[in-house]
Amino acid sequence: MTRSLFLYNTRSRRKELFKPLTEGHVGMYVCGPTVYGDAHLGHARPAITFDLVFRYLKHLGYKVRYVRNITDVGHLEHDADEGEDKIAKKARLEQLEPMEVAQYYTNRFNRAMDKLNVLPPSIEPHATGHIIEQEELVKEIMKNGYAYESNGSIYFDVVKYNKDHKYGVLSGRNLEDVHDASRELDGVGEKKHQVDFALWKKAQPEHIMRWPSPWSEGFPGWHCECTAMGRKYLGTHFDIHGGGMDLVFPHHECEIAQAVASQGDEMVKYWMHNNMITIAGKKMGKSYNNFITLDQFFQGTHELLEQPYSPMTIRFFILQAHYRSTVDFSNEALQASQKGFERLMDAVAQLERITPQAQGSLTEAYAEEVNEKCATAMDDDFNSPIVISHLFDVTRVINQLADGQATITAAGLEALKKVVHTWVFDILGLKSEAEGGNAAREEAYGQAVDLLLSLRAKAKAQKDWATSDQIRDELARLGFEVKDTKDGATWKLNK
User: Fold this and answer.
1) CA 287/CA 385 separation, integer angstroms
2) Which helix (H) or strand (E) holds 274?
3) pLDDT at position 61
4) What is the DSSP-derived secondary structure letter of residue 144?
5) How confident is the model over 408-440, as pLDDT tens digits?
6) Are 44 and 314 in contact, with CB atoms under 8 Å apart?
7) Three-class SS of residue 462?
8) Which candidate, 404, 209, 227, 274, places its Cα nearest to that of 10?
9) 20 to 30 Å CA-CA from 330: which of 321, 404, 423, 445?
10) Which of the pair, 461 or 115, is modelled with greater confidence?
11) Full DSSP string of 41-93
12) Are the C-beta atoms of 197 and 250 separated by less than 8 Å?
């Protein structure tokens, strides 16, 4: 916590020195998925982005309370033709309870996150489990004069709020821009102004998901859940609120207005937003019907995919771009990420086969230099692509050490292993694809190759060149590249 960490604050539109509200503690809230369908690549980006933030803040020594919500009230996603929330629609079509649909896709989302090695949040609250808190938020806003009732529904009075405060502080929009961009949605005839948004909606007879309230049987407006749950678990003021850039307006803009209208000031100190995954320059998402689910990536079953891509290839692909830049999907980019990830993992494995030298040219100082370069990159708004470039520089050095072109002391080697493992596994969150069911098999392969190389070394010592060459050639045929150095033989598996 002695380092100076800078992050880009969407609210101020500049990089700011991160100073938590409570020393040693960080409260972070990230908007999670709406669970009416399988997670796609667009869902993976914020999950991985804020997993990186979570991991690095913990690495710095902060105690982090990370809250990521589940939106299981489907009202925020309206069918353009029928005006029906999508969770309820899927439940009706499949003759299920809405919460069966929500739970099914929540489970699938969490399994996908586990494959991507995304750490679970500290708290994962569900919108349906916090209806009372959302109703209390609406009551506070009404009490302060910034909301009104209309036919059993409650709307936020944006025009009145804008006179007393400023609506648009996060997105930079003025009220005229918002008014011009407003769409004719269900309930617009009930509003005082077209720009007003729903805090509570009276349920129509066919609406399945509904709860009692002082105003009507209905359901909360989309924007209420994050304000209510963020305040419940992180307090009236907390450090970081994150999500995709598409949430800046209207969702996060409305959250700011709700907080100020209910408690008199803003809740969030730093706003962070990751940019979009695109396909042919267009945002990937369910609303555009151009998304590829994570399971389709893992299995290679989508028509746009030339092959399956492993979870770690997907994670590496996302981390290779800065979180505030767009990432355009292509098979070529994913294949390059796959090769880059394999190259990095080969170097990590190679570290275990390097023999240190008493008078090695590299010492602990080299590991300290690597660590400082990576930390400096992360301190500059979590710049993961620069971290990865530094790790690729280390990969070249590791290969030189393995080939005998450079040497390292025993203390230097242990320090380098620790630094590389910390950045690759603990902070970037990558892991060997051999983990799980293939781990024991790959370890056995390694032991078998080491045994064969020891036999080859004995053959060479006895000047049995035919046996020595045969072992090397057979290993090469099986995909193992063997290199002779002055300190012995090294090997790697060419994928």
Assistant:
1) 29
2) strand 268-274
3) 97
4) T
5) 999 999 999 999 999 999 999 999 987 544 444
6) yes
7) coil
8) 274
9) 423
10) 115
11) HHHHHHHHHHHHHHHHHHHTT-EEEEEE-BB--GGGSB-TTT--BHHHHHHHH
12) yes
Tokens found for residue 140: 């506070």
Q: What is the per-residue DSSP string for 330-369? A: -HHHHHHHHHHHHHHHHHHHHHTTPPP-TT-SB-HHHHHH
Q: Report the alpha-carbon distance of residue 226 to residue 123 in Å, rounded.
A: 13
CA pair distance 415, 363, nearest whole angstrom? 8
pLDDT at 117: 98
The one-letter amino acid code at 228 reads A
pLDDT single digits (tens) 205-225: 878 889 999 999 999 999 999
Q: How many CB atoms lie within 10 A of CB 193?
A: 17
> HSE (CB half, 13 Å, CA atoms) of 216?
18
* Amino acid at the residue 28: M
Residue pair 9/241 in contact by the 8 Å Cβ criterion: no
Buried b (16+ CB within 10 A) or exposed e, 12-50: eeeeeebebeeeeebbbbbbbbbbbbbbbbbbbbbbbbb
Q: Which two tokens stand for residue 191?
A: 């509003």
Task: Extract the tokens encoding 432.
Answer: 């060997």
Q: How confident is the model at residue 286 (pLDDT cuts 50, 70, 90)?
A: low
Q: Give the per-residue pLDDT at 357.
A: 95
Single out the residue of 459, 474, 470, 49 nearest to residue 277, CA to CA.
49
Cβ atoms of 81 and 67 closer than 8 Å: no
In the predicted model, is pLDDT for residue 492 greater than 80?
Answer: no
Q: For residues 19 and 30, what is the distance between their CA atoms, to the nearest angstrom? A: 19
**Residue type at 312 in one-letter notation:** M
Structure token digits, residue 359: 């008078």
195 with 175: CB under 8 angstroms?
yes
The two tokens of residue 335 are 């294949």
For residue 273, which of 373, 404, 170, 395 has the smallest C-alpha distance? 170
Q: Which residues contact 207 (CB under 8 A, 6 or more apart)?
A: 85, 88, 218, 219
Cα gap 187→464, rounded to integer Å: 88
The one-letter amino acid code at 174 reads N
